[in-house]
Amino acid sequence: MALEHFDPRLRANDLVQELKWDRELRARFETSEKEVLDAYPLTPAERTAILDRDFRALFELGLHPYLLGQLARLIYGTGEKAGTSGAATALIRSLLGDQYEAYMAERGE
C-alpha cells in the first residue's frame, strides 16, 4: 500500500490527527462518536466508512495509510504482540476483504 490514493484534502485525515493529539476529543469520540463526526465537514462516504469501521473504503477515499493504523488503534486499542491486536486484525480484515482467510491460511494462522 503506497500513497496512490492519499488525498491530503480528505477531512478524515484531520479528524484522525486531532484524535491522536487531543485527549478530550478522544474521550468524546469514545462516548459520542456521532457527535464528534458531526463537528467535522466529512463527506457522507467518509462518515459511513468510519462508522462501519471500513478501513479499505477510507484508504480508497484518501486517508493516509499511516492514519489508518492510528484510527484502528484509537477505536480498538492496542495489543501486546505487533500485528495480533484487535486493531491490527480489524485493519487487515477490512483491507483484504474476501482475501483475508486465504491470507491468514498462507501465514499458517
TrEMBL record:
Q: Which Pfam families match?
A: LigA
InterPro entries under this entry? LigA_sf, Xdiol_dOase_LigA
* Domain named Extradiol ring-cleavage dioxygenase LigAB LigA subunit: residues: 13-75
The record's keywords, sorted A to Z, are: Dioxygenase, Oxidoreductase
Under the GO molecular function aspect, what terms does this record hold? dioxygenase activity
Q: Which residues form a coiled coil?
A: none
Q: What is the protein's given name? A: Extradiol ring-cleavage dioxygenase
